[in-house]
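Hey, resending since the last one bounced:
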Amino acid sequence: MEVKKSKKARYFAASESAIPASSAGAPLVVEVEPSLSTSIIEKSKKREARRSGQPQKQKRLDKRQGDGVLVARGRPDPFSGSHAPVPKEKLHKYSREKPSKGASSLVRMKDKALKNTLQLRQKKVSLAIQEAVRAEHLNTEDAGFLEGDVGEDTEDITQQAIAEFVDVASSQKHFELSLTQFGPYRVNYTRNGRFLLLGGERGHVAAIDWPTKRLLSEFNVMESVHDVKWLHVETMLAVAQKQWTYIYDQQGIELHCLKTLDRTLRLEFLPYHFLLAASNAAGFLSYLDISVGKKIAAFPTHLGRCDVMCQNPRNAVVHLGHPTGVVTLWSPNDSRPLVKMLCHGSALRAVAVDSRGTTMATAAVDRSLKVWDLRNYGCLGEFRLASAAAHLDFSQTGMLAAALGSYLEVFKSCSTVAELSQPYLTHRCWDSIANVQFCPFEDVLGVGHAKGFVSCLVPGAGEANFDALEANPYESRSQRRQREVKSLLDKIPAELIALEPSQVNSVQQTTEEQARPPSQRIPKVEFEPRFKKKGKSKASHEQARIQAVHERQRREFVQQSLSSKKGESKARPTAVLDRFRRQ
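The structure tokens again:
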């Protein structure tokens, strides 16, 4: 019978058979290949290190280090971490919020759930800022600015001088339209800054492709026009006329007559919610969903005529200015204002909110200009203008334009009073200014006055780089159609409009007891069980006794309420005609 041998046995048997007979009695020496011996030694060392708990050798890419710099294949790695390093001086450029003064207090915070929530929020914000800084090298353009010579102020530089020294393409963006018959004019640009809409108070409406100076449509509605506004695409526009609000197409053909929006003075369009907000002469604020043509909300402000209106692009909250000097913040989900601020002691004339949604500027008839922080509703500064500002508007970079009669003043920033005291640019129009608006993604400010329109050059006003998926100034017809369908699919419900958009993903948990009216709530009983021996005072036993007391109290409360209702029904006199009495 043949016995099978193991591999080790066969190895030693082969070794013994390989020994010559002449070397019998001599010490046995077996020669093994160097590669095989090295692998056996390394495996044994790894096995011993694993048993002793010592750290194993790292991979080849990071096993050689020199002076704290990671070396890979003989070359130093410039990005030793998981991400590329970020310059600290650029973090402030992309930060949307000021650093919190109470950030160090998170360590001493007792509420662990709130502490974890705030820490996670800070981590997400810092990561988003770092990613924005890392992607900065992908931007193809840089923002410009205007700088005067030694001893020269930029406010003394005229529009003709700016147009003379800039390139030919930029100089063509400065032009004037003489429209003396149907003014004053309201101005509105599309979200991508490509198309311009003009509306004269005496019925003249014109849509222009202003970079190419091509007239899309021009018509007269034969009645007064109070405001004009582009809708989600440049093929639809809303016009607030004397009695009703109308919607026209790009060729000037009437599409709809919105009789639910009557005597409208100001219009605002919320692009992500497809809502058209309108304030009228009776002091009513109305919301119309243009995707379904349905009026979803209408609230009386009870503060008189309302012709000062703007929106917060951060949370889609509508800001209204009233003759009493009060600014109210509205949402279609509440019949009362979300916030009521007493901003001035006299009637308001203009309200504007910046693109970040954190700063608000207000102007009143007493020539005062105030800047407010919408995060804590505190006043950042107050400045006295030369005359009352009829209109205010913020640019994408934070510049503030104020219309003072026939004069136009542009401030580079409004964070301090010193910056408001020195204008960045000034311009004088032919007549009193009715409306101003910065053109998105362009260093252009559109000014509508009583005798026409002026396109002013304001270096550094527009965002230098645009997101083609959000707003593309060069989109084609097919791209516009795709964007319209996609925006309809991504439409945000009006129920999600709130002061703090970051709280949308939170759930407000209301218990059954809190949902009851105060008169029907069961009174709370403070019961502390006494100590018992023989293990009867364990936590589970104490909780069971507390729960039993609460159940007994709830049962007694329900019995008393039922008995009181029965007593009232018996005490009530009955008659033949009681069945016809209203309950």
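The chain has ten helices and 31 strands.

Sorry for the duplicate.
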